[in-house]
Amino acid sequence: MTTELTQDPRPIFARALDQAEKQVAAVSPAELGNRTPCADYDVRELLGHVVSVLHKLVRVGNGDDARDVPDVIDGIADDGWASAFAQARAEVERVWADDEKLDRMVELPWATLPGRTALDAYTHEFTVHSWDLAHATRRLAGLDPDLGSRALDAFAKFAPPEARGEEGPFGPVVPVPDDADVYTRLAAYAGRRP
């Protein structure tokens, strides 16, 4: 029987990148200053962060140190974010096309993991950041509920509320109604205020 840890994470990762890329491409220059639910980031900074994450994934995929890449890339023209994301994504897909990299240990800024586990974790990060961008630009329709559900399940395992401190990317869980949609529950679980 195939488990989540032995499956190839790249198809689901690609779906998360498809969703994020659509959100990035939809952002207009007038929306770059909008606040996001992601603490301390406006839309421009969040775009710089997601492009940065792609660059970090290229670095670790090549066996290099991802800490050399800033958490937020700047200097991208207002109308250049879609192109910057697409170019960085193409490089990530090129680097991670090698099946052997899935089982090689990679050193991330926050952990050392097998490549497949790292891609799985970043799948969920891109899913949450897609919601962040969609919320900030009022484009919530069309987010993939399966990706949201997968991310919610994953966050419950690797970011349980009792393991969170004052520092880090996840605030306390925000209460939402039991019948809230999966992205509202995901955002609340990640500490956003949907």
UniProtKB/TrEMBL annotation:
Record protein name field: TIGR03086 family protein
Q: Which domain of life is it from?
A: Bacteria
GO MF terms, alphabetically ordered = metal ion binding
Q: Which Gene3D superfamilies match?
A: dinb family like domain (1.20.120.450)
Instruction: State the species of origin.
Output: Streptomyces kanamyceticus
What SUPFAM superfamilies does the record tag this protein with?
DinB/YfiT-like putative metalloenzymes
Every copy of the Mycothiol-dependent maleylpyruvate isomerase metal-binding domain together lies at 14-134
